[in-house]
């Protein structure tokens, strides 16, 4: 068990008129190497939840465990936790501040107290893995394009070589191509390095495409938690809490409603799977002729 | 770290104090501050304290919100108290130890000043806690309208002020976000040593300033798109009007001030 939440509650500004119970009695655990999608309507507590992962917020009650130790206990060094659980916040490009891209990416390793040579090495490796080559090293982070800035900011977290990477809507505000690039990159890191990934998203399609497992939040409560495919069978409940299901799943459920039968084991989550199921169905009907 | 700034933080409520016209509250606060300086006796301060406590009670704002502002002036109060304890040498000598001589006059003087400063802060806190920044600037704009005659840009100033006030919570929030993002990269804002500490703030300040400029540019464009052209001919959605409670408010205020003056000119008492 890599990361475990035990009955975690979080209340903003307790005992004031602005009191907000943002996370309510949430428990789950995430194994090393999982790719988890964290879904929920606006204000459901996703961002609050991820700030609890590395101790930026302390639970009002309950505990957060990393490899079995409570991260708020005294023996645990916050700095170490934060370098092992990397968090990429929403619009991470707003955190860039250094004079050059390379120096900005070095900020994390520098704070870890690594020697300068290693800082640079890690920064360069991180920049390469997000697809920014040498020509970017000496550029000012402020002259990059929106998508490049975001990749530089993600590199800033990767340079600490975390075991888990938590991303808050990394694709927000990007065009479809930028979106695919960023998410593709995250998937590549997950596949090649065995990184544990938690991806916060508003998009069901995104979650269906990338996540193995989905956790759904609603008004601070964990409402669903399970394999992506299984969670998206609850189309009705999901739409009641302001979410939906991936478009492919919706197509099949509409077809089924209209009396078109499909086997239960088809892959409804990916476009590839959907096309194959539809093709097969058409072929069956026309007796082998397409 | 900016959570302690009560100034400009509104405590929502439905009390008479909340509903008073902002001009009444502004003049009320002014009169209250003036009364504190008219006072030269402890009874006077007692009266002011009683007056303020009654207003707080009516407003329904919990005492701990009102007193939160005191934390910020603790040092000022401490320094003032120390100075007057050691420098005022009237009354009877109480302590004579090495170079320290403490007189009874010094002690009572120190207590007097400390109470006065605290009441000053508490009084202003009550106003900002019961008045939204928008209404406050509305009140200022209308109350100071007479200055337009001497071509003092009242409207622009009020607009600048309300924008500034509006941006305090936004920038505070922004700063919290940036701070968290940098802390997630291992930044430590509690470093020891003055220079290191200042340098530690660069990762916070650069993004914050950039974001402030970005927001300012966006706002200017949005105002322009809505044909904002300054105060001339601009009407209000909710024009300020005095109601009966405001007249009662003024009546209470002036009675309080009159009483303060009477206490001041009384030849006896403490
Ligand atoms: N600093 C704060 N102070 C007070 N309340 C807050 C604060 N941050 C968030 N909240 C409140 O807590 C609740 C959960 O917010 P959170 O940001 O976790 O939601 P979210 O699921 O990330 O939403 P979104 O999808 O819009 O990012 C919201 O109602 C929000 O208003
Ligand atoms: Mg969020």
Provide the spatial order of strands within the biggest beta sheet of chain B. Answer: 1-2
In the CATH hierarchy, what is the superfamily of the largest domain in chain A? P-loop containing nucleotide triphosphate hydrolases
Oligomer: heterodimer
Could you tell me which ligands this complex binds, including any ions or cofactors?
A: adenosine-5'-triphosphate, magnesium ion
Number of helices of chain A: 11
- Portion in beta strands of chain B: under 5%
* End-to-end CA span of chain A: 49 Å
Q: What is the CATH architecture descriptor of the largest domain in chain A?
A: 3-Layer(aba) Sandwich
Structural class of chain B: mainly alpha
Q: Please work out how many helical segments of chain B DSSP would assign.
A: 11
Helix content of chain A: 25-40%
Rg of chain B, Å, rounded: 23 Å
Following the backbone from N to C, one meets helices and strands of chain B in this order, namely: HHHHHEEHHHHHH
Helix fraction bin of chain B? 55-70%
Low-confidence stretches of chain B: 1-7
How is the secondary structure organized here?
The complex is a heterodimer of chains A (290) and B (270).
Chain A (H helix, E strand, L loop, with lengths): L2 E10 L7 E11 L4 E6 L5 H8 L7 E6 L2 E2 L7 H7 E4 L12 H11 L4 H14 L16 H13 L5 E5 L7 H18 L2 E6 L2 H7 L2 E6 L2 E7 H4 L3 H6 L6 H11 L13 H15 L5
Parallel strand pairs in A: 3-8, 3-9, 6-7, 7-8
Antiparallel strand pairs in A: 1-2, 1-4, 4-5, 9-10
Helix pairs in contact in A: 3-4, 3-5, 4-5
Chain B lengths: L15 H4 L2 H17 L3 H18 L3 H5 L2 H18 L5 E5 L2 E4 H27 L2 H11 L10 H31 L9 H7 L1 H24 L18 H22 L5
Antiparallel strand pairs in B: 1-2
Bound molecules: adenosine-5'-triphosphate and magnesium ion.
